[in-house]
Structure formats: C-alpha cells, structure tokens
Amino acid sequence: MTPLHEVIVNKNTKINPIWIMRQAGRYLPEFREIRKLNPNFINLCLNENLSSEITLQPLKRFNLDAAIIFSDILMLPYGLNQKVEFEKGFGPKLGEVNIDEMSRLDEVDFIQKVYPVYKAIKKVSTDDIVKGKNTIGFVGAPWTLLVYIINQQSPKKKLKEDFFKNDFLINRILLILEKFLKIHIKNQIDNGANVIQIFDSWAGLLEEKDLPNYIYSPTLNLVNYVKSLNTPVICFPREIKNYKEFCEIVKPDAVGIDYNINPKKILNDIKIPIQGGLDPKILLTDKEKLKKETTKYLDVFKDHPYIFNLGHGVLPETDPNMFEYLVNTVKDYQ
Ligand code: 1CP
Asked: How far apart are the C-alpha atoms of 44 and 38, rounded to whole Å?
C-alpha cells in the first residue's frame, strides 16, 4: 500500500509520510531555470514534458512520499474559456465571465483544452521514481474558484462588498463548477492520480453563517464523488471559521490544517486523519528551530494518523537545504 493510503485508509499511526504544498516550484533553482525560459505560466502547465519534469524535480532531490502534479487550480477556469493570465509580481488576472458561453461548453471541449495536464499525470505516475509512492491530483474547491472567477484576481484579505450581489450568476457558476470539477477529477484519477486534494484557499473569507451554502454543500458533493471513485480525498479548507463542523459535515478522508490551528486542540476536535500545520516561515529560520517545531507536530500527532506537510505552501525564498533538513527530520523521527 502507498504511504498516503496507509495513513488515510489504514489509519496507520506508525508512519508519517511527507509531501509539501508547492514542493514543485519557485524555491528550486532548477524550476526557476525552466520558468525563465517559459514566461507564460499557463503554457508551461500545458507542456506535459516540462510540467512532468517540474513535478519530479523535488522527488529527485528529497526523500518525499508523494508527487503533486505541477498545474494550477486556475486551469479549471482556463478550461471553461475564461481568460487566465499570470503577471509577475501581481498574481493571477482573469478575464470577464461570459456565463452564456460557459454554460454552452461541453465536456469534449473542456478536456481538449486541459488535456496535457492528464498526459503529465500519466507520465509522472508511471515514472520509476514514483513507484510505491503517491501521485496527488488536485482541484480548487468550488468556493475558492468562484472567488477567482468573480473577483478576477486574488482577493487578498477580504471580499469586495458587492461580491454576492448577483446571486443568480453565482448559482449558475457553482453548477458549472460542479460539473467540470468532477470531469477534471475523474480524468486525473483515470491517468494515475491516486489521491485527490481539494484546495479551499479562501475558505477563511467567509463568515460562519455562509459556510453551509458556499462550502459545505458544494464540497460535500465533490467529496462524495471522489469517494465513489474509490480514491481518498484530502480537503484543505484554509483558515475556515469552523474546522470541526467542516469535518463532521463534509467528512473528507483526511483534512489539512493551516498554521493558525493549535495542533493539540484540533487533535481533540477531529477524528479523521490530519495533514500539515507547520508554519512555512519556520523554514526561513535555523535548523535548530526547524527541528524543534517539526518535532512538536510529530509529538502531538504521535498516536493519530498524520501526514506531514506545512500549513500553507513552501515560500519561494526557502533554502533547499532547509527543505532537505525538514524532510530528513521527519524521516528520522522515531
Ligand atoms: O513561477 C511562478 O510565478 C508561478 C507560481 C506558481 C506555481 C509554482 C503558481 C501561480 N502556481 C504554481 C503551481 C501550483 N499551484 C501547484 C503545483 C503543485 C505544487 O504544489 O507543487 C499547486 C497545487 C497550486 C495550487 C494553487 N494555485 C492554489 C491553492 C494552494 C494555495 O497556495 O493556497 C492557489 C490559490 C493557486 C492560485 C495561484 N497560482 C499561482 C499563484 C501565485 C496563485 C495564488 C495567487 C493568490 O494569492 O491569489
């Protein structure tokens, strides 16, 4: 059994597999070299030779237990024919929503647009270096994708006041997302992804009263779909106001925690396998502190099924030597 299945399905508490969000990315000089030659980020994600190579870069360097495919949650709106661009120093920039065009889009056209992502997953999942390990496919949660689609850029800290003004538009987008997220997940699994992670990066923007409508219902629907494909699903509802209720209602197979969560408290609140938590900024300090903080998480979750990860993506300014030290600390932990 693969390391992540061992923890998520078998509830094994004796091992702590490790993978890191954004492990394929900007902190690695070999990534930056490829990126420099490929200024168009979407095109890079659509180049299956390069995206599979980037996916494998961290596995060649470090003793990681899983590969996460180098792609982006915004490949979904791209596949729905919304314009998506990444501007250096600004982040994603999306075009206006054409809801009628989006509604008319069929499955074949969508798959054709993002097909290289599936080819890259096939390449990665059949590579020798990933043998016995996991290949993680992923999507953005409906709520987080809705935020980007409507807001057309990163919301940073809060939503614009008129975000919810067009209820009808929002409901139509959520229905379209439900359909195409399922298609995107199914194709990732069919091509070798054996775990799915659902990133809800902007879950923290919602007040508690809005969680059922925008997060619980649509995410539960998606989680049940992934389960029906016999594939474990990890949810990461970053900074959500009520982690406990989220887990009780949505029932993912495992849950990722952000770095604001108190690990001891969450251990009492949540029964399902847990992933992550360590503040990525700790990797910018020194080895002594890194070891201490890493060991803290491993100690707290000693008797609980636990996958090691950070509480958000690894920062671009991280020294790869510190990353290596983190992986080795987790691997050497008894
Ligand atoms: O080189 C560059 O400038 C591109 C930087 C970059 C990278 C390396 C972006 C732009 N996306 C990615 C890859 C990526 N994105 C992966 C690859 C696999 C891995 O983890 O190694 C994954 C899983 C994502 C997921 C993603 N994209 C999320 C969810 C996780 C999170 O960080 O909260 C989100 C919110 C995005 C949107 C996005 N894509 C890129 C940026 C800079 C952003 C965030 C912008 C914002 O703050 O809104």
From this structure: 6
